[in-house]
Design brief:
This protein is an all-alpha fold and 327 residues long. The chain folds into two domains: 71 residues; 243 residues, no CATH class. It contains 13 helices and no strands.
Amino acid sequence: MDVDAYSYAHRRSWERLDGLAGKRRLTGQEADELVALYRRASQQLARLQTHSPDPELLAGLSAVLARARGRIVGTRTDTWREIGRFFTHRFPAAVYRAWPWWVSVAAVFIVLSTGLAYWVAEYRSARRILGLPGNTDSLTKPGGHFETYYTEHPHDAFAAQVWTNNAWVAALALFTGVLILPAVSLLFGNALNVGVSAGLMAHAGRLDAFFGFILPHGMLELTAVFVAGGAGLKLGWTLIDPGRSSRLTAVARQGRAAATIALGLAGVLFVSGLLEGFVTPSPLPAALRVAIGFVVWALFIAYVFVFGRNAVREQGDAAGELLEPAG
């Protein structure tokens, strides 16, 4: 069976089913149509499962059937339950599916910024090529601009400011990924900033201070940027190579995944902003500040690879439940 042709042929009926499930009031004729479309779509889902379809196609149809089944049995969607399901299933699953992309972005970013840092720290010609001033004491000395950046503003205002800025950067990396080059340029600019700052601090013999101020919030913050950039590039690559699906279907599906990731990353960057606003500039020892940041970062990684992987695995079981006839 040609899965793409089969899904294309039935897509209008799935959209009609989803539309009926979302209506506040149904006429008797529409209620009968809803039940008929639900049963037909359940059979179609079973057939798709036997031909190993794209997991995101399966998940999309399963979600439509879930909404329809809820409407048929007369249940109402619990808003808080949906919010909880978003953070326990949809968001981590979307991030988990994209992990090869954002892990690759992270690896390239770290290698590039490390190379730039070494170049800037060891070679005066590098600082000249990059247009850096000969004397950077105002930035790198104890109490210099690098450190006061984190302490010169009230903690709450600073946390809100960095949250807004980081959310904007992540959104740009995510949604310009469809064009690929703008996202690559944005990620390179961030790697350049990190590499130059690290290089200047290393040249001044203060690399320990650099890590002491960057790592508490930077581990989570940069990971969020990597996720956004990786998901954005995956969206752009889907436009080039849609796989077995039609280009329109594949891009629409990946676009929905990107929107899910964007919404979830707003929460991740909020936590990162709290770390940058309250932990990074705190008088706690640097080792303790870094440890706090590492624990939060490790919890996020565990969240993605435990909740996300489980959510992806559960989709088959959830789909199986949907095949049972309603009431």
